[in-house]
Amino acid sequence: MRFISFFWSKKLETLQRKPILWAITTKRLFSTRISLWIYRLWEIIIQNQNSDFISIFPTMWNIQSPEQMHDLGKDLAKNHKILLLHGDLGAGKTTLIKGFAEQIGINPQIVQSPTYAYVNIYEDKLLHIDMYRLNSLSEAVQKGILSQIAEFEYIVIERPKWISELDLGNYLELEIEKISASERLVRQKI
Length: 190
Prior knowledge:
Blueprint: E1 3-11, E2 16-24, H1 28-47, E3 60-63, H2 66-79, E4 82-87, H3 93-103, E5 119-122, E6 126-130, H4 137-142, H5 145-149, E7 154-158, E8 172-178, E9 184-188
Parallel strand pairs: 4-7, 4-8, 6-7
Antiparallel strand pairs: 1-2, 3-9, 5-6, 8-9
Helix pairs in contact: 2-3
């Protein structure tokens, strides 16, 4: 029986995830070829760690508390300037954004969901948009939301719509799923 198993391990010194790849097959020739192919793929991934190549592998976080969600927001702000967040009411989007805002020097106490206001701007640094109540792209244009996107370096959009028309450049798109009262699953969307 031929199969390939992928296992993950943590390297304690760097706390980075690195896969240990195992290829087990019934035929030695096939095993050697598949092992070399997997090894070469792993080399490519390591060499291109900071490029878009790595984005073909989605990332997931299992969040157990609001504090962890806040910390995730802080971590994301270190490497990303634009976040697109999907999730139901109460999923933790605003908590994540508070951490994001804190990392870029904004008081997290002032961060609120703009569900009814459509847009919140924090200290002229962060544009926070909620597209939930927008019915069309033309409505977003009429309200001046799209014109503001070009003016900000840091942008967070809750429940984004018309992503291809927004001209955002590089962004990280996440889905937040409520598992229980305190547990959330955050997945990168590809």
